[in-house]
Specification:
The chain is α/β, with parallel strands linked by helices. The chain has a single domain, classed as Rossmann fold (3-Layer(aba) Sandwich), CATH 3.40.50. It is 45% helix and 15% strand. The protein has 10 helices and 8 strands. The chain has an 8-stranded mixed beta sheet with strand order 1-4-3-2-5-6-7-8, sandwiched between helices. α2 links the parallel β3 and β4. α4 packs parallel to α6 and α9 crosses α10. InterPro entries: KR_dom (IPR057326), NAD(P)-bd_dom_sf (IPR036291), SDR_fam (IPR002347).
């Protein structure tokens, strides 16, 4: 997902990554007769779910990509062998979201798909959470997402098409002990997805909310506490990436990964008192 922020500097410069493509197919249609390739901006692409989504889009072969992440080295490793442009930037820093969106629009001409995958976490009792970590988590997981969408959405609406994919968490659906701020932020992302979807009805622009559970990435190590439960078992980030691409193709509003996670969210919505008693007992 992400790691501790670093100050702006040389690693925050946008760097193109060239691609050595396969030999031309003699039977292929001329470039001017092919359908135009779609365009996508993926944030959080230097690791975890964002990196898996970037690789899936690149493998699909139908996308021109701009990838954003904090770690330039990892970002360029993800982009290696593709024609993606990398923009290393910490989205919690003032103005970083504007630079990323402007770079994407300048390079791609338009953005058909935004996958807002940048995020950080923190585990522990809220009373012990440093103020700086609260600001970092809210800034990266919520405010940066809002600013990115705000920067790209008018262009999508003007074009009459596009899709915004917001990466949420089951923590935002049910609340998780020891992750109060993360749960609150992801709940806000879920509400934003719903409200924005209603607002965009009839514009040709769609909103997909992806709700993963436990994912096998370095996110848990970076949040300060590894995942130690035996159940539910973590799913690979590629499974979430596959769900993202399927949702984009089908125009799905919301998808849980794995799908059974929708059940506890429904139980909480239908019988919140019962759910809270179960959660208090079993964690």
């Amino acid at each position: 997902m992400s790691h501790a922020p670093s100050p702006a500097g040389p690693s925050n410069r946008a760097r193109p990554v060239t691609k050595s493509g396969p030999a031309a197919d003699p039977g292929a249609r001329p470039a001017d007769q092919r359908a135009p390739r779609r365009t996508a901006l993926v944030t959080g692409a230097s690791s975890g779910i964002g990196a898996a989504v970037a690789r899936r889009l690149a493998a699909d072969g139908d996308w021109r990509l701009v990838l954003n992440g904090r770690d330039l080295t990892r970002l360029e490793q993800v982009a290696a062998g593709t024609s993606a442009l990398t923009v290393a930037a910490d989205l919690s820093w003032p103005g970083a979201d504007r630079r990323v969106t402007e770079t994407a629009l300048d390079h791609l001409g338009r953005v058909d798909l935004l996958v807002a995958g940048a995020g950080v976490g923190w585990a522990g009792d809220f009373t012990g959470m440093p103020r700086a970590r609260i600001d970092e988590l809210v800034g990266t997981d919520l405010l940066a997402t809002l600013h990115l969408v705000r920067g790209l959405l008018p262009h999508m609406v003007a074009a009459g098409s596009g899709r915004i994919v917001l990466l949420g968490s089951v923590a935002g659906s049910v609340g998780v002990r020891g992750e109060a701020v993360y749960s609150a932020v992801k709940a806000a992302v879920a509400a934003f997805a719903d409200a924005l979807r209603y607002e965009l009805r009839g514009t040709g622009v769609g909103v997909t909310h992806v709700v993963p559970g436990v994912v096998d990435t370095a996110f848990f190590d970076r949040r300060g506490a590894p995942y130690r439960r035996t159940w539910p078992r973590p799913v690979p980030p590629e499974r979430v990436a596959d769900a993202v691409l399927t949702a984009v193709r089908r125009g799905t509003d919301e998808v849980y990964v794995p799908g059974w996670l929708r059940l506890p969210a429904r139980v909480r919505g239908a019988a919140p008192g019962l759910y809270r008693r179960l959660a208090a007992r079993f964690g």
